[in-house]
Amino acid sequence: MPLRRTAVRAGRRLFTACLAGSLLACLPSCSGGGAQDSAGASAGASGLGDRLFPHAGNGGYDVTRYGLDLSYDPGSGRLSGTAVITATATQDLGSFDLDLAGLTVTRVAVDGRPARTGRSGTELSVRPAGTLRRGARFETTVAYAGVPRLLTDPDGSHEGWFRTDDGALALGEPVGSMAWFPGNDHPSDKAVLDLTMSVPTGLTAVSDGEPAGTRSGGGRTSFHWSSGAPVATYLATVAIGRFTVTRSRTPGGVPLYTAVDPRSDDPQTAAALRRMPEILDWESGLFGPYPFGSAGAIVDHIEGGRVGYALETQNRPVFPGDGEGAAVDVPTLVHELSHQWFGDSVTPRSWQDMWLNEGFATYAEWLWLEHSGGVPVARSAATAFDDPAAWAFPPAAPPGAADISAQPVYDRGALVLYELHQALGDTAFAKLLRGWPAAHAHGNASTADFTAYCAGLTTRDLTPLFATWLYGDAKPARL
Ligand code: TRP
Ligand code: ZN
Fold first, then answer.
1. What ligand has the least distance to the C-alpha of 404?
2. To 5 degrees, how large is the angle CA 418–CA 420–CA 426?
3. 1-241 domain in CATH 2.130.10.10?
4. In a mutational test of the pocket of ligand 1, which residue from 173, 342, 353, 404 has the highest number of ligand atoms less than 8 Å from its CB?
């Protein structure tokens, strides 16, 4: 089908020209990285220099844990609480930045001592009382509150914080986590996530990781979620609202926690979700053991197609339902669940490595179509190959920030895997599908890491294959 997915991707592409870069425009005061203070410590850079999102993330430290203790009031839309960010300094630091869009910061402390702060665009700069030495572990506490923002992406779609009629939904690809918590908002800095969300009793808060208990009192209930495995900020989510929660387990033993807004529980969605155990166990057979402590899904009702895409948020992908058609279909479920290996466990090092996510997830759909519907992978590959829209740019080199969700990233990305299957043969290709997620489990990987890994599976020279299919502009004569 991927009619819906295709429509969504095309929708994202329609807006290619607008807004590129404006979201993250660097203001004069956020230079960072250069000046040294009297102690010889410099400011951490205000961006990590990602080719497509240069201001995303920050330099000078590496986060190991986000402890978020938050409270949400659906009536006013106000979020408030504290973020405790545990990090290690990667240089002597006189000051450093966190990414945060909107919201009011009321107090910042580093290792318990008040710190000076400044705001500039989406940078929150923090100057601790003393210099942080390279290698030091430090804890930054940020108290904040406000009505979180909905952000507009370079391709015109929306992310960040969506208010719904019964709560809210946070989605963060590529740079939307900064709408609801301060952090190092770049895929290269993964960290454990521990979230407590207090909501009015009767509502449920669902997030990444595993449920770690609830506490009720005074008309409110706190939901505690703990990730265990590191999470890239763009894969962090929270959904607040009325949900029907189902807990089960796949025959292969993966615990499932699924939350469905009763208004999005149409028959096709229910039928697709019933196949989740089968899909997860099938994917585990192909890609190796499921990488996390639990799986599941979040199906949230959100009016008027305001989200327009599913997202592979860690442990439980989000599927928006607006009452127009089914919220979840089987191919999209296969796609988002495969991202748990490709994207969530093995996370791109930078945004131009996105094809490693979407190419594998699209290929997973092709494998599923063959497995369940008898449509040979070769037929899916031929269809993708024949579509002129797939050839707009090479999958490993999206020209701009608005292109990371465009069709070449998905379809040409999957064609790279199709070509590798031809070149490597069945046995080595099966090793690739299992071995690649194992080689970088819970870490980051770049396109160069991928081509090096493939080279290790064969005596053949794969350089021409990658030159053509990964980096080449020209459409080859044939598959
Ligand atoms: N990653 C999503 C998927 O394919 C699609 C998507 C949503 C996306 N938001 C994005 C892709 C932002 C790139 C950038 O399932
Ligand atoms: Zn995807």
1. 1
2. 90
3. no
4. 173
